[in-house]
């Protein structure tokens, strides 16, 4: 399932629900629908930037999380390591479009909404 984030100050950002959940958990926001107001945007940016920094400091944890998010079957150990190397898209890359939207919303005084 997809979640689409919307703001009048930037193009829509659409991502898979399982990837959006981690971002929304960091922000303590509902997975189904919600709003990040222009006043909240600066704090949301700070929280996401901290999580991005942590994910870069501990890439093995980030890769582990990515493997669990994408697994449709249980790969063996060698297959899991190979998948992590080939297909790993980290938290930083997944969060980047929403971070850009939040920055534009903050600067433009607009809200970011989803599930509406």
From TrEMBL:
It comes from Pseudoduganella albidiflava. Residues 62-83 are annotated as: Disordered. This is DUF1840 domain-containing protein. InterPro entries: DUF1840. It comes from the Bacteria.
């Amino acid at each position: 399932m997809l979640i689409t984030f919307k703001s009048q100050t930037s193009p829509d950002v659409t991502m898979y629900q399982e990837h959006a959940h981690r971002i929304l958990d960091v922000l303590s926001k509902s997975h189904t629908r919600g709003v990040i107001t222009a006043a909240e945007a600066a704090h949301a940016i700070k929280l996401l930037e901290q999580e991005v920094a942590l994910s870069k400091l501990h890439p093995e944890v980030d890769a582990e999380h990515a493997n669990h998010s994408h697994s449709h079957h249980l790969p063996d150990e060698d297959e899991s390591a190979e998948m992590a190397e080939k297909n790993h898209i980290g938290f930083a890359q997944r969060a980047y479009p929403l971070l850009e939207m939040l920055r534009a919303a903050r600067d433009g005084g607009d809200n970011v909404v989803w599930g509406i």
